[in-house]
Design goal:
Elements (H helix, E strand, L loop, with lengths): L1 E6 L4 E2 L5 E2 L6 H12 L3 E6 L11 E4 L3 H11 L5 E4 L6 E3 L18 E3 L3 H7 L5 E7 L4 H11 L4 E5 L8 E7 L5 E8 H15 L6
Parallel strand pairs: 1-4, 1-6, 4-5, 6-9, 9-10
Antiparallel strand pairs: 2-3, 7-8, 10-11, 11-12
Helix pairs in contact: 1-5, 2-3
Length: about 210
């Protein structure tokens, strides 16, 4: 198989030096890329800025903003059999980016925010015969919210985890299908979970998708 994997955070700039982002380390996405390559698959890794080195045997595309991640993912998805969207994409961005550096005013400021484009939803809407695995990080009504995300973004499966995964070497996840029930549960190092997830996909995808 040829698998598109997204990883890491994205950044949305307020001015030329300040940005909105999150604490994603990218470890889960990079572990998935390593596991897929180790099991004999081709990988296209689209990654936001992280302090990790990509696997040497993957096609690597470094991005920074959500728009860049969307463009790279949409461009490479048609040449892949499926996507695992493990990136922690920034959901909002300033309505306008200020040129230069925003100076202190001595008082409060207001910043108008707008939603960024939904990378996973765009991939899901155009998946055709390809498969889509999303990630959902939820803290409340976790399974219900993950199921809503799966359906809204046209995923085949969604991996549910919680905020303790951010920056951690370990993870605890559930793989959820369109019934909303967990069909698999994995815990341990992100490398182990990645290996188990890739092996599960290979065993459960239709023959023509492998």
């Amino acid at each position: 198989m040829r698998i598109l994997i997204t990883a890491g955070p994205t950044r949305e700039y307020l001015d030329d030096v300040r940005y909105l982002s999150n604490a994603s380390s990218g470890r889960m996405g990079y572990a998935l890329a390593e596991a897929a390559i180790a099991q004999g698959h081709e990988v296209v890794l689209v990654s936001g800025p992280v302090e990790l080195s990509p696997p040497s045997d993957c096609e690597f595309i470094a991005v920074e903003t959500t728009d860049e991640m969307r463009d790279a993912s949409v461009a490479h998805f048609p040449d892949c059999d499926g996507v695992i969207a493990a990136a922690a994409v920034c959901d909002y961005k300033p309505k306008e980016r200020i040129e230069g550096k925003l100076a202190k005013t001595g008082g409060p400021i207001s910043i108008d925010m707008i939603e960024t484009d939904d990378v996973l939803a765009q991939l899901g809407a155009n998946k055709g015969s390809r498969w889509v695995v999303g990630f959902a990080l939820e803290s409340q009504n976790a399974r219900e919210n993950a199921l809503q995300k799966l359906r809204a973004k046209n995923c085949n499966w969604i991996v549910l985890n919680n905020p303790t995964a951010i920056g951690s070497l370990d993870n605890q996840v559930e793989l959820i299908d369109d019934t909303g029930h967990p069909i698999m549960k994995w815990a341990g190092s992100k490398q182990k979970i990645a290996t188990d997830l890739i092996a599960w996909l290979v065993a459960n995808l239709p023959d023509q998708a492998q």
